[in-house]
Design goal:
It is built from six helices and no strands. It is an all-alpha fold. Helix 1 crosses helix 6, helix 2 packs antiparallel against helix 3 and helix 4 crosses helix 6.
C-alpha cells in the first residue's frame, strides 16, 4: 500500500485498537469485552469514571479509549487533556455531540473487542 493511500475511518479504528492491545493480558481482554455493555447500561461518563476509580486494566483500556476520542477531535485539545479535563468536556458537550462521542466509542470498542483476544492468543 502506498503512503498516499488514505485509510478509512474503519481501518484507522482497527489499526489503533490493534496497537493498543499489543501488551494486553486476559484481564484487559475481559475489560474490552465488557465495556460496551457497561456503557449501554450506565453511560459513557459513568463508565469512564468507574474505570478511572478501579485502576489497573480498567483504567488502561478507558485511557486508550479516551485517547482515541481525543484523536478524533471530540475535544478542543490536540493532545489528551487527561481524565478530569475530558470529563469536563463531556459534561459541557451538546447532547448531539455527546451522542456522537458515545457512538464513536462503541465503534472503536467493536474493533478492540476483536483485536484484543487475537493479540493475547498470539503471544
Amino acid at each position: 500500500m502506498s503512503t498516499a493511500t488514505k485509510l478509512t475511518l474503519e481501518q484507522q479504528r482497527a489499526q489503533d485498537a490493534w496497537g493498543c492491545s499489543i501488551r494486553y493480558e486476559k484481564e484487559h481482554v475481559n475489560v474490552a469485552k465488557s465495556l460496551p455493555a457497561l456503557i449501554m447500561n450506565s453511560g459513557l461518563m459513568q463508565v469512564l469514571a468507574f474505570c478511572h476509580e478501579k485502576g489497573g486494566a480498567n483504567q488502561l483500556v478507558a485511557d486508550q479509549l479516551r485517547a482515541w476520542l481525543v484523536k478524533q477531535r471530540y475535544v478542543a485539545e490536540a493532545r489528551d487533556p487527561g481524565f478530569e479535563a475530558f470529563m469536563q468536556a463531556l459534561m459541557q458537550a451538546k447532547p448531539s455531540d455527546y451522542q456522537a462521542i458515545t457512538a464513536e466509542a462503541f465503534a472503536w470498542l467493536r474493533w478492540l473487542r476483536q483485536m484484543a483476544p487475537a493479540r493475547v492468543k498470539g503471544n
